[in-house]
Design a protein that fits this description.
- The chain is mainly alpha-helical and 99 residues long.
- Helices cover 39% and strands 4% of the residues.
- The chain contains 3 helices and 2 strands.
- It has a two-stranded antiparallel sheet.
- The termini are far apart.
- 2% of the residues are buried.
- The mean pLDDT is 88.
């Protein structure tokens, strides 16, 4: 029993604004049907004791937590700047005048 029909693939193609030929509709319908069948087989194997997961291996966040550390003061950061204004780097204007 097919999980997805040729008409459903045509509908998806229209939504994606893809022009699909008759041969492509048949091909993609078969591929999607194979995918749906594979997912169904996995669902049959996974019992109630298997928790849903997005990855077969446990993943942990490798980023370190944010910690506040001493850094430059605004005056120290601007000390080498060729120009500054209101505690900011002043750079030459490269776009047109502001309106």
């Amino acid at each position: 029993m097919p999980g997805i029909t040729r008409e459903e693939v045509a509908h998806l193609g229209r939504l994606a604004r893809l022009e699909l030929s008759g041969e492509e509709l048949d091909h993609f319908a078969q591929q999607l049907d194979d995918i749906i069948g594979a997912v169904a087989r996995v669902s049959e194997v996974a019992g109630q004791d298997v928790p849903p997961t997005s990855h077969p291996l446990p993943l942990t966040n490798v980023m370190r937590p944010d910690t506040v550390r001493p850094s430059l003061t605004p005056e120290q950061a601007l000390s080498g700047a060729p120009a500054q204004e209101q505690q900011r780097f002043k750079v030459p204007q490269i776009l047109g005048e502001e309106s």
